[in-house]
Amino acid sequence: MNRHGSHPRSILVRFSTPRLRDGFLAATISFNKERKRSKDKLNTGHIGFTGGPEGIYIVEHLTATVKELHAAVRKRAKELNYKLVWIRGGKLFMKKDESSERIVIRNHDQ
């Protein structure tokens, strides 16, 4: 646990190659998509922690600039009724819906 609050501490993992990182991220996304109930998704029980299962969230580590841009894009996407905003490989993407073309967001001016 985080000594300054009730939230668990983050664990930062550095992979030896981008391919290994992307494979790990894809595997966790696939694992969670196959499970409909949130209690079955990746949790502390899957990796041997005792106690009640707590969700594990796997995300890319982002620079402060990308975090700020991501927050601004999520807000703008909500205003414009875009359904999807995501980050992959440090790049920010958005889509109006599942069938639309993805848009790469590079800065606040787009």
UniProtKB/TrEMBL annotation:
Residues 63-109 form the FP protein C-terminal domain. It holds the Pfam family Baculo_FP_2nd. This is FP protein C-terminal domain-containing protein. InterPro entries: FP_C.
